[in-house]
Write a structure and sequence with these properties.
This protein has 433 residues and is mainly alpha-helical. It has 20 helices and no strands. 79% of the residues lie in helices and 0% in strands. The longest helix is centred in the middle third of the chain and has 37 residues.
Length: 433
């Protein structure tokens, strides 16, 4: 499969700066909402488990496992959404499909904030929650491919890595926003108030955020690359499938380590290391700050030295550091400051993979299959290695009693990603792209 040429319609040079900036904001705002919600769901996992998946007298750990199962299910609908929305986006345009994706995500997330709990409607409650998670999964699957296509297709020459990194940066902002909302509520409300109604507020906040995103996307232009290349001959399906598999392999470490350190960490600290809710949130905020700090510089650097060297550095660092960092958290003799530095570093090394990742995926596919191809690569990798992270880690710790499972999970997946990144295919970051 031949990707876009060095200087051609896929990397148009006539894009006005105002168009590029508008595309950057319109593309990234949906990612912020998506990951804000997924972060909130992860941070309130123990409360959601109690309200929706734990009938009176039920096991708390069983309820948490069911909560993460619902979490995983949403991720497994991402590839479906990537295929459906991607096919539309490659045929009718990026703009209308991104508008549909943000409407679906906003509606489903807002409805979670008003759902009746198990105590009110019994066994219907978890089914309703799971249905909304499925809708979120579909919309999230359609979000990434379109957002990254818009950002990179509107990017000025030689700045795809920088522009694409904003997708990952708004992921960090979304997770930080979710953590900040959870921390604020945990500070202002009593434990009873938080468990009774306070947890609903972050989900309801999605409504005004979604309306803002809709306004930005209604003002978005269609990318010149799509207008010029939509009728070009499509590459063979086998070649597209190979590129999807390669892309998914390259980002599996980013997906697994990112969710392990940035989302699953609060529940792990509470259930396995006896941390309080507030302590777990502080640790998560520090990890996400580390993640946010390195993303954009990593994307900028990848425009100069290549995507693969930067991502490979991050993958190898996680492989080597995951278990030692976890040991620091488990050691009761480790000071709070050192533990804070440990979680900050954990997030920072994931950012080295996340910064260049979107542009790397974009460059694997020509314009007329890009929305579908990069969306599926991202969705499949996240479905398996992010969506299942909480479920696999929690269930395995429960069965084995081994508190090192998160470290092994992150290290092994990043090692596999490092091998995939050693293949030279698709790295055109220093070829005018």
């Amino acid at each position: 499969m031949t990707a876009a040429p060095e200087h051609g319609p896929d990397q148009q040079t006539a894009t006005r700066p105002a168009q590029s900036r508008r595309a950057l904001f319109a593309g990234s705002v949906g990612n912020f909402i998506e990951w804000y919600e997924f972060g909130v769901y992860g941070y309130f996992a123990t409360i959601i488990a109690a309200r929706f998946f734990t009938p009176e007298g039920g096991s708390e750990i069983e309820g948490l496992v069911k909560t993460y199962a619902s979490f995983a299910l949403a991720f497994f609908f991402r590839p479906v959404g990537a295929a459906l929305f991607g096919r539309l986006g490659d045929r009718i345009g990026r703009r209308p499909v991104l508008i549909l994706a943000v409407l679906l995500m906003t509606g489903a997330t807002t409805l979670i904030g008003v759902l009746p709990t198990y105590a009110t409607v019994g066994a219907l409650a978890p089914w309703l929650l799971t249905l909304l998670r499925v809708l979120q999964g579909l919309s999230a699957g359609g979000e990434f491919g379109g957002a990254v296509s818009v950002m990179t297709e509107f990017a000025p020459p030689g700045k795809r890595g920088l522009y694409g990194s904003w997708q990952s940066f708004t992921v960090a902002l979304g997770l930080l926003g979710g953590a900040g909302a959870a921390a604020l509520l945990a500070t202002l409300l009593t434990t009873e108030e938080l468990g009774s109604w306070g947890w609903r507020l972050p989900f309801l906040l999605t409504l005004p955020l979604g309306l803002g995103a809709l306004w930005l996307r209604l003002r978005l232009d269609e990318t010149p690359a799509f207008r010029e290349e939509r009728s070009a001959e499509r590459p063979p399906a086998r070649e597209v499938a190979r590129a999807i598999a390669l892309g998914a392999g390259r980002i599996m470490g980013w997906a697994a380590a990112g969710y392990t350190f940035l989302v699953v960490l609060p529940s792990y600290l509470q259930s396995s290391l006896n941390a309080t809710f507030q302590q777990a949130l502080v640790a998560t905020v520090l990890a996400n700050l580390g993640f946010a700090v390195t993303i954009v510089p990593a994307g900028w650097l990848s425009d100069r030295v290549g995507r693969r060297p930067v991502m490979l550095t991050g993958a190898l660092m996680v492989t080597v550091l995951a278990l030692p960092l976890l040991d620091l958290l488990q050691d009761t003799g480790t000071s709070t400051t050192v533990k804070g530095v440990a979680v900050f570093v954990a997030g920072a090394v994931v950012g080295l993979m996340a910064g260049p990742g979107p542009a790397m995926l974009s460059e694997l596919f020509p314009t007329n299959v890009r929305y579908t191809g990069l969306g599926l690569a991202y969705a499949l990798s996240n479905a398996v290695f992010s969506g299942c992270a909480g479920l696999v880690i929690t269930e395995t710790i429960e069965r084995t009693g081994n508190a090192d499972i998160p470290g092994y999970y992150a290290a092994v997946t990043c090692a596999v990603s490092a091998l995939a990144l050693l293949t030279p295919r698709g790295d055109r970051s220093r070829q005018g792209s």
